[in-house]
Automatic annotation (TrEMBL):
Molecular functions (GO terms): 2 iron, 2 sulfur cluster binding; dioxygenase activity; metal ion binding; monooxygenase activity; oxidoreductase activity, acting on paired donors, with incorporation or reduction of molecular oxygen
Keyword Mitochondrion found: no
Listed Pfam families: Rieske (PF00355)
Domain Rieske: 4-103
Protein name in UniProt: 3-phenylpropionate/trans-cinnamate dioxygenase ferredoxin subunit
Originating species: Petropleomorpha daqingensis
Length: 117
């Protein structure tokens, strides 16, 4: 893993998203109910920035909504939770150290599914 500092924690509204432009990809750093997520900042349906959409709970999942057509993406998995999007977007491991947010930019964009206890 190669974590890279992408922003200060205070740069991300609660709830809200911040677009971070990196060399290889644009990432939305998202804050919702005290948690920080990193998700590819491009809707898989319409190719518009997800960071411009609303962050909210949808069907029990923390999501970000594409402002153009209303598709929501689960912040934990990148999976769309409603149509018209049918393809997931990449999600990345996040680490918060003090007031800094770090994202593993060398991750393959998929996170392992948590085992049910």
């Amino acid at each position: 893993m190669a974590f890279e500092r992408v922003c200060a924690l205070n740069d991300v509204a609660e709830p809200g998203a911040l677009r971070v432009e990196l060399a290889d990809i644009d990432i939305a750093v998202v804050r919702f109910e005290g948690e920080i997520y990193a998700i590819e900042d491009m809707c898989s349906h319409a190719e518009v920035p997800l960071s411009e959409g609303d962050v909210e709970e949808f069907k029990g999942a923390p999501t970000i909504e594409c402002w153009l057509h209303g598709s929501c993406f689960d912040l934990r998995t990148g999976e769309p939770t409603n149509l018209p999007a049918t393809e997931p977007v990449s999600v990345y491991p996040v680490r918060v150290e003090g007031e800094d947010v770090f994202v593993d930019t060398e991750s393959d964009g998929t996170l392992p599914v948590a085992a049910n206890s």
